TrEMBL record:
The lineage of its organism: Eukaryota, Metazoa, Spiralia, Lophotrochozoa, Mollusca. This is Cytochrome P450. GO terms for molecular function: metal ion binding; monooxygenase activity. Heme binds at residue 319. Keywords: Heme, Iron, Membrane, Metal-binding, Monooxygenase, Oxidoreductase, Transmembrane, Transmembrane helix. Cytochromes P450 are a group of heme-thiolate monooxygenases. They oxidize a variety of structurally unrelated compounds, including steroids, fatty acids, and xenobiotics.
Length: 373
């Protein structure tokens, strides 16, 4: 009998532990989801600060990025083996609105991604009707009264589904392409970047062996932590974004009548901010067309106006994907440099010239990859 009570108690104990664990995971997931909404300016319950630090999410993202980086590595490897010339270019996204329409008719539990969050936000908005709300944009903004309702309209949702793949796929691959091309065109900078990667990651890594975050470090695969330590690579990426910023014009609307640089700007007037011209202004950047990553040391940065460098925009409506983009680009380029050396080839025209009104190189960004010994 005593034995029965003991086993009964231990079964109850195990069940309690399981229930509490499952409940905690469920609450954690629910709050994590809510926090993603909040960071996109969509109202919801506040994030649990101790669980939902940005870097925790970033670490999780690292696993997903590692998978993509592995495929990228294998692709570059096949090109390096044949000695083929490779054109680095941005991948333009396909139709996301069509995908959303399909999902409208499917159970929400089937998907757990950004598009699904938007679909649900729209449904939530429709169900709740107009709400007079102040939105807290976390560390980016204090408050805003622009939003008067929970959720998103169909148009807003479409706009977001377009801007996300655009930022995620096109801008990230554009910056990656130009950075690799700039490194190929500047062997001294390339050697320095490779030396940094070698020092932080080691020369050899088997990208096909990693299973999850943490295992990678053992295999000297780039991780969140090591990516954060690649300061020189970051400077190279910044220098490429200075010369070739995908967001080459930003626009803003005047909230009130104002005088600016001797001009009267009426309320509601839209102004274009010429990022490309600012980034190439010789008064700010001496010898502006020279690829010189040293312009982005902390000391050099401190001497410039913060608005002199605007690859991700500035202010409350700056790029919300900035940190993710920086992490992705560092991880991808670090892995490539760890294994391969990008070099200019017969088809390369360096420095690249941008097409008019189109953010693409006139002659393509052609390189060859050489496997490192
Ligand atoms: C290297 C890659 C990227 C570059 C160069 C870039 C650049 C920019 C720029 C210049 C803006 C306009 C900012 C302003 O007007 O002040 C912007 C806005 C935005 N970006 Fe990115 N972006 C990149 C990656 C991403 C990624 C990965 C995402 C999504 C995960 C993303 C999502 C957005 C969104 C949603 C906005 C609109 C923000 C708002 O209107 O409040 N971007 N981006």
């Amino acid at each position: 009998m005593a034995l029965d009570v003991t086993s009964c108690l231990s079964v109850t104990g195990v069940l309690t532990v399981c229930t509490v664990t499952l409940l905690s995971i469920w609450i954690w997931k629910a709050f994590r989801k809510a926090s993603m909404f909040q960071r996109q300016g969509i109202p919801g319950p506040p994030a649990l600060p101790f669980l939902l630090q940005n870097h925790t999410l970033m670490k999780e993202m690292t696993v997903a990025i590692q998978r993509v980086v592995k495929n990228l590595h294998n692709h570059v490897k096949s090109k390096a083996e044949t000695g083929e010339e490779v054109e680095l270019k941005a991948d333009v996204p396909g139709s996301y609105t069509g995908t959303q329409k399909v999902r409208d008719h499917l159970p929400t539990s089937k998907y757990n991604d950004f598009l699904q969050l938007l679909v649900e936000a729209e449904r939530e908005g429709e169900a709740q009707g107009p709400v007079d709300a102040e939105i807290d944009h976390g560390d980016q903004l204090t408050t805003s009264k622009q939003w008067t309702r929970k959720g998103l309209t169909t148009d807003e949702m479409y706009a977001n589904t377009l801007i996300f793949p655009d930022g995620w796929q096109r801008n990230v691959s554009t910056v990656m392409s130009f950075t690799l091309f700039d490194l190929a065109g500047n062997p001294d900078c390339l050697a320095k970047a490779q030396a940094e990667v070698d020092a932080k990651l080691g020369k050899v890594a088997n990208v096909n062996t990693f299973k999850s975050y943490g295992v990678a470090a053992k295999d000297r695969q780039v991780t969140y932590e090591t990516a954060m330590e690649l300061a020189y690579l970051d400077m190279c990426m910044n220098e490429s974004m200075r010369l070739y910023p995908p967001g080459f014009i930003l626009d803003r609307e005047a909230e009130e009548d104002m005088e600016f640089a001797g001009y009267h700007v009426a309320k509601g007037m839209r102004m274009g901010i010429p990022v490309l011209s600012i980034h190439r202004d010789p008064a700010i950047w001496p010898d502006p067309m020279k690829f010189d990553p040293e312009r982005h040391t902390p000391e050099a940065r401190a001497t410039r106006h913060p608005f002199a460098f605007l690859p991700f925009g500035m202010g409350p409506r700056n790029c919300i994907g900035m940190r993710l983009a920086q992490l992705e680009i560092r991880m991808a380029i670090a892995t490539i440099l760890q294994h391969f050396t990008p070099v200019l080839c017969d088809k390369s025209v360096y420095p690249p010239k941008l097409q008019k009104l189109k953010f693409e190189s006139q002659d393509g960004l052609w390189v060859k990859f050489q496997a490192r010994a």
